[in-house]
Specification:
This protein is an alpha/beta fold. The chain has a single domain, classed as Rossmann fold, CATH 3.40.50. 37% of the residues lie in helices and 12% in strands. It has a seven-stranded parallel sheet, sandwiched between helices. β2, α3 and β3 form a beta-alpha-beta unit. α2 packs across α9 and α5 runs parallel beside α6. It is globular.
């Protein structure tokens, strides 16, 4: 049977993004157009059969796409979320439809104790943890540095980088050899936007942390890698960016559109699976052609 390939220019035609006002952190059901997480397209092949994964920020966006892909690859899934209960229920339903068990954990990852408790809850439910995906993050746009409140600066760093330390440090006490940690960084780590200065700085820190953690974790047989997405259509975009930036979101890529979360999930599957047995300390870009320098 002949393989079927899709022209990447036509698989997701460049959409029109109408005005849409959402409160932070945003909600999937309010997005126009709705994001694709692989609900009708992702096909698993048992790459993660019997594994247990904890995904932060799994209620929506890239996190939901990872949760769905992992479940279709045979993994049981725990995921965290901040307050988006309806979005979290949808992710739970998607995982259960795959015949896998799922645990949704409502928590604030800016708090170290809650990060460690999430791992404890995952282990209490499933008996272990094999894969940690540090994915959840906070962002907000500002016109200038003078506009950034001290408390928001502090919250951004606690949520976006300190939490990665908390989750990873505690998870490494429990992940057996052969497991993996995957960190979501960003094109913003390499090509930062001035109006996203706090977010971009944390993403650069995540990229750096990924490399240093990989050196330590491999001594325990655990691989550590990162994924650096470019623009991706998630609830964070309409809830944190000005109308004009939302309308043109993704136009600066070679595809002239943002990625859909479903287009990122296969990278996370690869990095979590034995297919990547000789891959650690790497950061994989998925930027739509934008250069990482």
């Amino acid at each position: 049977m002949k393989a079927v390939f899709h022209d990447p220019r036509s698989k997701y035609p460049a959409p029109l993004f109408p005005q849409q006002d959402q409160p932070i952190p945003g909600y999937e059901k309010e997005m126009e157009p709705r994001a694709d997480h692989g609900e009708t397209s992702y096909r698993g092949s048992k790459k993660l059969e019997g594994a247990v994964a904890l995904i932060t920020g799994g209620d929506s966006g890239i996190g939901r796409a990872i949760a769905l892909a992992y479940a279709r690859e045979g993994a049981n899934v725990a995921f965290t979320y901040l307050e988006e209960d309806e979005d979290a229920r949808t992710t739970q339903e998607l995982v259960r439809e795959c015949g896998k068990d799922v645990l949704a954990i409502r928590m604030d990852q800016s708090n170290r104790a809650e990060c460690e408790k999430a791992i404890d809850d995952c282990i209490a439910r499933f008996g272990r943890i094999d894969i940690l995906v540090n994915n959840a993050a906070f962002q907000k746009t500002y016109e200038s540095l003078e506009e950034i409140p001290d408390d928001e600066l502090d919250y951004t760093f606690r949520t976006n980088i300190e939490a990665f330390f908390y989750f990873s440090r505690y998870a490494l006490q429990h992940i057996a050899p052969g497991g993996s940690i995957i960190n979501t960084t960003s094109i913003q780590a390499y090509s930062p936007s001035s109006n996203l200065a706090p977010y971009a700085a944390t993403k650069a820190a995540i990229a750096n942390f990924t490399l240093s953690l990989a050196e330590e974790a491999i001594k325990k047989g655990v691989r550590v890698n990162g994924v650096a997405p470019g623009p991706v259509w998630t609830p964070l975009i309409p809830s944190t960016m000005p109308e004009e930036k939302v309308r043109k979101f993704g136009e600066n890529t070679l595809f002239e559109r943002p990625a859909q979360p479903a287009e990122l999930a296969p990278l996370y599957v690869f990095l979590a699976s034995d297919d990547a047995s000789y891959v650690t300390g790497e950061i994989y870009g998925a930027t739509g052609g934008r250069k990482q320098v």
